[in-house]
Amino acid sequence: MSKRSEAMRVLALLDDSRQSQAALAAAVALADEVSAELVALFIEDLDLLRCAAFPFSCEVGASTGLARPLESAELEASLVRQGQRITRALDRAVAGRKLRHRLQVSRGQVVGEALAAAAPGDVLVLGKAGLSARWGWSSRLGSTSRHLVLEAPCTVIIWDERHPPTPGPLRYLRGEAPTLPWGETLAEASHSHPLFRGREELATMSAPELERFLARARSGALVISRWTLTRLFDEDPEVLARIPVPVVVVP
């Protein structure tokens, strides 16, 4: 496999959800494969912290459905615990690998902080349900993931934790054959990357047609340009959430 320069980074935006853990595993594997630095991003949500300052704020238990006051002190303690769990998860994910990695912690609005951390040569890996679905799996694309996939200055990979990836075709729409951010053409990646076995050119499709075509896919990935993804979102805002293979969105 051709290697990118050491300036390339793989960013993983993390909370301690199941979706986030799957995205971390994918980011570690990619960073290791292309000899890139792994940067795990943990952003303490400033909007949530501000909400806790209101006397009427409350949180609802995911399993009990009971409401209780949302208190700043408890929220701060929860963020500390969450950061500790993310640190342990990162340590487990990189164990046994000679992989440059670090945890970057910041506080602010999640989308803004993530956009500020990303550079054009990076790859940003997200869980499909985003940071809004910490309990179980959501059939909707998280709002954080939606903003980042459309606004990030770099390639974004959306990972679906429901279906562990297996080698399969690297699919792309007719007329789109971009170079991947780690320096490979689609032809090179389809032969050298462990996730891909060959290429499959797809006809130009509408959002419903693409969803139906990929509904039973359980291997490989879809590579799509941001321009085309914007068109598909205009037709169906949730099409990406229902595609069951990893989606690589290139600028």
Please specify the SSE layout and strand pairing:
Blueprint: E1 9-14, H1 18-34, E2 37-45, H2 46-51, E3 58-60, E4 67-69, H3 72-94, E5 101-108, H4 110-117, E6 123-127, H5 143-151, E7 155-159, E8 168-173, H6 186-192, E9 196-202, H7 207-214, E10 221-225, H8 226-235, E11 247-250
Parallel strand pairs: 1-2, 1-6, 2-5, 6-7, 8-9, 8-10, 10-11
Antiparallel strand pairs: 3-4, 7-11
Description:
There is one protein chain. With 251 residues, this protein is of the alpha/beta class. The protein folds into two domains: 1-162, HUPs (Rossmann fold, 3-Layer(aba) Sandwich), CATH 3.40.50.620; 166-251. Helices cover 35% and strands 24% of the residues. It has eight helices and eleven strands. It has helices at residues 18-34, 46-51, 72-94, 110-117, 143-151, 186-192, 207-214, 226-235, and strands spanning 9-14, 37-45, 58-60, 67-69, 101-108, 123-127, 155-159, 168-173, 196-202, 221-225, 247-250. The strands form two sheets. The chain has a nine-stranded mixed sheet with strand order 5-2-1-6-7-11-10-8-9, sandwiched between helices. β1, α1 (18-34) and β2 (37-45) form a beta-alpha-beta unit. α4 (110-117) runs parallel beside α5. The radius of gyration is 18 Å and the shape is globular. The protein starts with 8 loop residues before the first strand and ends with a strand. Residues 1-6, 60-66 and 130-139 have low confidence and may be disordered.
